[in-house]
Design goal:
Layout: H1 2-26, H2 32-43, H3 52-64, H4 68-73, H5 80-89, H6 93-106, H7 110-118, H8 121-124, H9 132-135, E1 145-149, E2 152-158, H10 165-170, E3 180-182
Parallel strand pairs: 2-3
Antiparallel strand pairs: 1-2
């Protein structure tokens, strides 16, 4: 099943590239996608997936991912329906790649992927691009890592960090979240 999916993703990427090439050569108003859809449906009547709408997704997919190596190694590991959801819901390339890697690692279904995108998992996990490293002091509680696991916030204290005065004052009191040094 994985190799079938890989071949389908590669086929769709190649069709998308062909559409981009034809549109560049013939111009946008040449109805390249409409003609190609009719031709493919006529030539392969038993195959599905050649609608105008799906061909537009193929074009967007090829336009988004230029490198064939990335398509073969990374993108072919998830289904076409995952890619459609990503194209519709995630506009930033780094965020989209992050969701692809998380989908592969966690074996998310398309519905789980959509839920994670809509709930803002990328931003909640600290994977978002920030200027914290440049703007914040090199030491201190503000530079510690905040990790979200199953909606539970965990503060990970880097080893060698100084103890924050507030933490020193609360030492000995029960803390709702364990503070564990990172090794």
């Amino acid at each position: 099943m994985v190799s079938v999916n890989r071949e389908l993703i590669l086929l769709y990427w190649q069709i998308g590239n062909d559409i981009l090439t034809r549109q560049q050569a013939e111009g946008w108003g040449a109805k390249v996608i409409d003609r190609l859809s009719r031709d493919l449906v006529h030539e392969f009547p038993d195959m599905k997936g050649f609608s105008v709408r799906n061909l537009k997704y193929m074009r967007a997919f090829a336009e988004t991912w230029h490198d064939a190596a990335i398509v073969q190694e990374l993108l072919a590991q998830i289904t076409w329906y995952h890619h459609i959801a990503l194209l519709d819901k995630v506009k930033d390339a780094k965020e989209r790649e992050w969701y692809i890697r998380q989908t592969i690692q966690n074996r998310w279904s398309r519905n789980v992927l959509i839920h994670q995108i809509e709930s803002g998992l990328f931003l909640r996990t600290g994977a978002a691009v920030t200027n914290f490293a440049a703007a914040l002091p090199a030491r201190g509680i503000v530079r510690h890592e905040i990790v979200v696991v199953n909606s539970v916030v965990i503060l990970v204290v880097n080893s060698g960090a100084y103890e924050d005065p507030v933490l020193r004052l609360t030492r000995g009191f029960p803390h709702p979240y364990p503070l564990a040094p990172r090794s």
